[in-house]
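Attaching the record inline, Q. Sequence:
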Amino acid sequence: MKTDDPKGILFYLLRYARILLGLVFIFSAIVKGIDPLGTSYRVEDYLSNFGWAFLMPHTLLVSYVVILSEFLLGIAFLFKLFFKKAMWLMLLMLSFFTVLTFFDALRNMVPDCGCFGDAIKLSNWATFYKNIVLISLNIFVVVNARRIVPRPPRFFPQFFSLLIAGVIFLGFINYNLNHLPVIDFRNWKTGEDMKPIGLDKEKAYVTYQNKATGQTKEFLFPNFPWKDSTWMSKWKFVGQRVDDSRVQRKYDLVVEDSLGNNKASSIFENPGTQFILFSYNLNLGNVKGFQEASTLVSYLKSKNISMVLITASDWTEISRIENRYHLKIPAFLADETELKAIIRSNPGLMLMKNGVIIKKWHYNDFPYTEKVQKYLVSPEH
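Structure, as predicted:
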């Protein structure tokens, strides 16, 4: 006898378990779908660490399959569409990811699973325990499935409901892939001030050594007798250190020039207007994007506003790109993974003013000169 009786506690437990599973799957799919490229990077990490190299060329496709499957299963659970099939498919998916995340937690192979994209960060063990809870709820639903009254077994209404939901969601994923994510969950988002906080708390210390005795003393700069010529004649400078433990820095990205000097602060904390062109791999960068960036460079030069290129490619590749696209701008090197995190576009463009991120553009949306005008600060404006 079916006990979908509103008065029974089992009815409510099954309903809440079903709805919770549906909502979790939908939420997980949405936050991944907001950043499909970022999801593909996580998939790449898993494939690389688990030795599934044969799938590496298809990481984006795998990401789409995972994201769309989660969304459709969530919708199916929430509205009881093809419920019995969805119930077993969800159990299969959860079983796979529970085993996967167990080994990941055990060996710490991938630091961040990306289960909820960049929206919610979970440790590897927290991810595994989360999957244990979800699969337990799923098993509870499977065991008591006969007590859940399904929708009338009409194939086409259920099929077209899922089809329409899937097509709309697929369009949403594609939009985020071909433009920037509609919501940026990462540190380098529009409006973020990248200047460090608490620089006034940074302390510099200098160490001097007595020439006669070898004794050393450390002083908080500039609180030492540097104006006392007699003292200075007896002591010599031997070293210095900076205590910035109380300074909160917004990034730890190292950006090197051709001499190996770190120019990150002079770029990201530039008090003026600064355009930055990012390309984690110049060889894989979009041709139209580089062409439009070159056109924009010429315009910005007329306004005395600089643009720099930050890439993980080598100097030979930088020279090739410069000559091919007449992209004569200062170039710097940085870590590929960090550049992928800053902007989901290759190339991607970012505008900063006084260390604040004003705007970011995907290469499909690079601004024309007249559109970028409103963002510029120059003597004429």
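Residues 208 and 236 are 5 Å apart (CA to CA). The chain has three domains: 9-178, 203-243, 264-375.

More tomorrow.
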